[in-house]
Amino acid sequence: MEEDQLIILQQRPTRNSLLFAVNGLRFQVSTSHVDPTTTLLEFLRSQTSFKSVKLGCGEGGCGACVVLLSKYDSTLNIVQDFTVSSCLTLLFSIHGCSITTSEGLGNTKHGFHSIHQRIAGFSATQCGFCTPGMCVSLCSALLNAEKTARPEPPQGFSKLTVVEAQKATLGNLCRCTGYRPIADTCKSYAADIDLEDLGFNSFWKKGETKEEMVTKLPVYMPAHRHATFPEFLKKEVNSNEHLDFESNFWYTPVSFEELQHLMAANGTRIKLAAGNTGISYYKELEWYDKFIDLRRIPQLSVIKRDDNGIEIGATVTISKAIEALKQKQEKFSSEIVFEKVADHLEKVASVFVRNMATVGGNLVLAQKYSFPSDIATVLLALDSMVNLFNGSKHEKISLEDFLQRPPLDSKTVVLSVEILNRAPTKNDSSKFTGKLKFETYRAAPRPLGNALSDLNAAFYAEVKCEDGSSETTISSCQLAFGAYGTKHAIRARKVENFLHGKSLTTAVLYEALKLLGTIVVPENGTPNSAYRASLAVGYLFQFFIPFIKISVETFNGRSNEVLKSNQFDDISAPTLLSSGKQVFEFNEEYHPVGQPITKSGATLQASGEAVFVDDIPSPKDCLYGSFIYSTKPLARVKAITFKSNSQPDGVSAVITFKDIPKNGGNIGSESPFGSEPLFADELARCPGDRIALVVANTQKHADIAANHSVVDYDTENLEPIISVEDAVEKKSFFKVPDFLYPKQVRDVVKGMAEADHKIISAEIKLKSQYHFYMETQTALAVPDEDNCMVVYSSIQSPEYAHSSIAKCLGVPQHNVRVITRRVGGGFGGKGRKATPIAAACALAAQKLQRPVRVYVNRKTDMIMAGGRHPMKITYTVGYKANGKITALQLEILINAGIYPDISPILPKAIIATLKKYDWGALSFDIKLCKTNQPSRTAMRGPGDVQGTFIAEAIIENVASTLSINVDDVRKINLHTYETLTSFYKGAAGEPREYTLSSMWHKLGTSSSYNQRVAVIKEFNRSNIWIKRGISRVPIIYQVSLRPTPGKVSILTDGSVAVEVGGIELGQGIWTKVKQMTAFALSSVGGRDLLEKIRVVQADTLSLIQGGLTAGSTTSEASCEAVRMCCDILVERLTPLKEKLQNQLGSVNWETLISMASMQSVNLQASTRYVPGMLSSLGYLNYGAAVSEASFTSFRLNKVEVNILTGETTILQTDIIYDCGKSLNPAIDMGQIEGSYVQGIGFFMLEEYLENSDGLVVADSTWTYKIPTMDTIPKKFNVEILNSGDHRNRVLSSKASGEPPLLLAASVHCATRDAVREARQQLRSWSGQDKTDVPFQLEVPATLPVVKELCGLDSVEKYLQREISRK
């Protein structure tokens, strides 16, 4: 058999190398040197100079690795361009293809593409890690729009529509920007865009005409598309020489006969490959003997239409299937059915996954591994058929039978799926009118895809209506449900049979839904099982209710109305950003400070040329590390072995605490509150505790080895502390230093005595949140001469890593150098938590005397990160009948985890933001609980976000208990300046600086708050299944400045190099520092110095005492440090300039510096800005022991809640934020929007789930959902308030990085407002009093949480009421 196989395969000419192009360059790779599991991403990052393609998740869930893949059809002479996830695309599968990365679109050398320029001009990049993938996704959308037959667009635009533009980057994740500027960048290309609808940008100014705007946009040239497939590769394709290649592992049969022979060998492990996207969900660790690429077998790639329907081959991609289903075919009566199938398929995964994922592969995953497939469910409702091939046998079976069979063996191949044409059955009598109805449904955290469904469903029905009658009879129906916690999608045949032939009434529908409840039953252990079951009922109700004429008396007592089917139209409407306004004032006083200068390096980030740590080329003989971590909360580590009982391929060493030098220490990180060990010693103290570092010759080998590791634990007589309740019982606490513990306010006993009412011992529980920086933890350590170590780290605090590494290695600090250029997102997670990664690399490099680097995979990162602090709050509040609060008592238990990290700062932060209201009197008891959980760390707004939510939850509860308007309760408890000084002693500033009241009223006016409240009230009275809510929320946020160094060096050609302690994380610190340097040197250098200035990377031996980049104030502190340096330089240069002016009349900058150099003027100055020591300190008025400031802001939000699913849509957001005099309004605007959207994630979406031991189980992009383009507000309006001069701050500026995150609490409050309406309606259906009953809306307010509060049985109760009224 093997001989026959070789004869068949060798009848075709072959070559022994892969051939493809990357950015127009030819690559020919020997197949004998390539592991068949090598992905395109691995190759690009390790074997080419192109680094724009980033590893964000390794499972196709983030878009950071997206590339443009182009295929040439020599027969039709056309090029197909589409995006793919390079982390899933096998290198062998791109043979004969061309790859374009963001560098290939444009770059520094050849000029940037207009996409790069527009990304920069619209401020659509911050950290920049995700930006190249965004650019490629947009490029693909533009290329494919140009290939359509649409009319030629106006000059400067593309054939792209606004709707297409908004969806162009839908699957790409961004954690920084909040997406609004990215959407504007994409829409700027759309032919149907009104440019006035676009947000702020650097291209035009307010008031310019549309014609002027167009001319100022970077020119878009559609002709760029010709470069995606180079001519040399076309010649190869035309010659057919490239089509076949030899490999010992990879086979590409072109017929069934070849496939038969390849699969016939016994004892051979075979992997059938097409799109390879299945590995994103089912991570494969085993080895295969053969990889068989099925894509060139013609029968598997067929798309065939005939009178019976459409047949789609198994290797047809989901994207191609969508195209085929959308094609207009007049003779097909099922056209609308096919279109709806296509619409649903567009919500499966993201476009760059659908472009490779195949229909057959998806069905196999559903059948073989119980994958919760949407495709299987949708096709099941249409009685689809599946064609199979097993050996020499062809078989056609129903999709239902296919799913119910035992899992397919490796010898069975799915050939195609047939979707049958549907036509209404002809009625014998002319008095009946027949109709078809087909709908699909899915409930998921993201409305437009890239998220698994909690339940999916598809229903097909034939109904007939007798002329002149309102009754509808169901001739037949097919009802499919899937993804609800079952092995595979099912048909609800008992319900189908029950409904067959019946006239549809409320009673019949009610009985059908009751029957359905006995069928759609999630398996034991399914998360949110009751919610999933309720979804099935809700969707079936939604499908059939339009056929029933119901007289509806709404719960508010209005006149009777007829329930129409279009009541549900808005339920299915997609949610995408439609518009937004950005309002701010320019500041000319300190030019160029105060100007909306484009972010420094933005085009480099867009093109992918900006260098992150993992982009640094690996040094010679470099090794790679991967962590082995504990899965137990408390256990003795007896031994570490591997599953194969032998050391895996490529492994050089397993580094543990035993490898730490005798003169070193087991120190992973340090803080003023205590240290954290680098590795667990004999005892692992929490899940995620680092046990060892596997070091291997590649990152893949290291990760595989870590995955194959087996840790032998002993838990005898060890009792872990899991919860805060356990910690209280065992008195396990961390001490909070007295100077960090906040002070009580006034007399609580007296305040309680003044109260008319009290709420006693109410509880709130808050969960954690993962940082989800796009770049995971990473470091590279390179041994240097004389026992020195150079470490490149993605870290917010290089100084802390420097100190810890030196102590760990047992060397003087001058032997260690830590370098950080930029960080791909931090949000606090790369402060303390990045230090052990750098230290582990350094330890391994020292022991092995070879460079060692680590790029932590997303799962490990999520398990080890710790995240935001969970906490339990118990409060007692006293208040008057009008809602004025007189006293508040709090007991707060904070789960700090096993090590202190930054936890002792939490109490002060929580209380600082909670004090935004006048509580009358305030007392609290806050405990930091030490538990056997990963140590929690800083997460954007640590403690502050919890504090503001606690405040809002109390306000909401008081209003609910009193049944009065919550906005009135907020207003009556806002501070006056006098009460502000009581709660924020020493931090309130002058009366004119307190802008809270004026902002509250301004927001009410600018957002038309009262009018919108009335409109929402009327909407809720008129709509049963969709409810809207609105909320206006204030925040007050205190920050502190920390000492920060700076150094300015003027080089002999007049260029300027600047170093600061702050790290560029995406917050624009380099840009603001450049602006400040230009301003501070302008008195001797003129107004045109900006382009001569460069901010260079942080180097701990060049600029010491850099501190921690955190707390929102590092940018302004760095700016002040730089200004002090420049003042020194100006003082040195001024006498020389005056002398030269007397001699020459005028002196330009270059001449001045040249002469200064020749006269030995010191052109370098360094200093350290220390808050409280200088008269220029901006925050002295805001702090006593430390420098603090109060930040006031409001935001107003309107949301819409779907009662059937719990889905929340944010319709509009209006923000006013007090930024003082912004150092750069464009950057601050981006910080406000991005921080706010990250807050949406905390309050509404992100569940950082753990098992009973505390081990994180939401450990991937599949299970952890951050906000995306379809979950941000539809209308997003932001105004930066210029609150005037604050001479004691840095040029009157205020911070913007963290405070806006708290504003997202209003989304939660607005959702609560809508839920309250739904609950009142539900009570009215049961004949209960409609008065407000207090309830608690959890954080995050996910779909199941909202739906449960709206009533899991709301449909049944509604129908019961209707039945009882007849």
Question: How would you describe the overall organization of this protein?
Answer:
With 1366 residues, the chain is α+β, with helices and mostly antiparallel strands. Helix content is 30%, strand content 21%. The strands form eleven sheets. The chain has an eight-stranded mixed beta sheet, with helices on both faces. Helix 18 runs antiparallel to helix 19. The protein is globular. It starts with a helix and ends with a helix.
Distance between the termini: 75 Å
Count of DSSP H/I helices = 39
* Strand numbers in spatial order across the main sheet: 23-27-21-34-31-32-33-42
Structural class: alpha+beta
Shape assignment: globular
Radius of gyration: 32 Å
Q: Give the DSSP E fraction (strand runs of 2 or more residues).
A: 15-25%
Sketch the major β-sheet: 8 strands, mixed
Low-confidence stretches: 1-12, 552-566, 1173-1194
| Helicity level | 25-40%
E-strand count: 46
**What do the pLDDT scores average to?**
90
